[in-house]
């Protein structure tokens, strides 16, 4: 069975390989120390390549941040970012004047569309204990018809995201966190209106799977034969599909037309990305994703001319007050907080 289901396997690192309609997936897993008064690490930064710190010294990275870890202002056009913060906090600010703080299982789904500049910073709010952070950032492409749609973001708060849990007779549990795409009879929350995931035939799914030791979980068959399904085992003891054991830090392309049973003797966590390919040409340069070189050239002209609205904040990587709870203030002034 496994020989029929598992089409390809690859090892995983910080950045995971993806297949159309996905462009990119990064798994950030940083064991940050206690924080200081500036919400940065209360530790020496000596020996780090500040501004480009991706080496993981002592189990954590500053990324492009110099005081607070994270990604100061940078532009995007032509695709979407799905940021799932499993542990820790992320602070968002953007060129539309919107700000947000989310984490502890929340998701921010941002349609860059015609262009946006934003920052994503990871404040270390706890000054007396470590500040572990784990997040996934997934880039989902937009079809040509939607690449120039208005920028927009949707918050999927942890307590509202649908979850499918099953507990067996031994009290062991499996759970599916449904970020996108129905899982069986359980539908997801709505994606942004111009997302590829909003098209019914796109069959986009983003699921976080958790299996306790000694449990099994069945992935339903995809809606179309064209759907591409990729399984990433990122934590635990791995999973078994038929006779094949997929170890931790393994990605695999699975045949999606049939239901697939995963078993884990030691427990595992996995991410599933699936979707029907958009199937259009891709021209990408860094944070800009268009369909041809002419589109990229125009993007650079537009960005140099307009700054995608300009940067309204006094610093490149704003962080919110340490005691501020999770929230989102949208460009139209709408304040949103998890219930």
Automatic annotation (TrEMBL):
Residues 64-140 form the Pirin N-terminal domain. Gene3D superfamilies: Jelly Rolls (2.60.120.10). Coiled coil: none annotated. SUPFAM superfamilies: RmlC-like cupins. Signal peptide: none annotated. Residues 206-309 form the Pirin C-terminal domain. InterPro entries: Pirin, Pirin_C_dom, Pirin_N_dom, RmlC-like_jellyroll, RmlC_Cupin_sf. PANTHER family: PIRIN, PIRIN-RELATED. Belongs to the pirin family. This is Unannotated protein. It comes from freshwater metagenome.
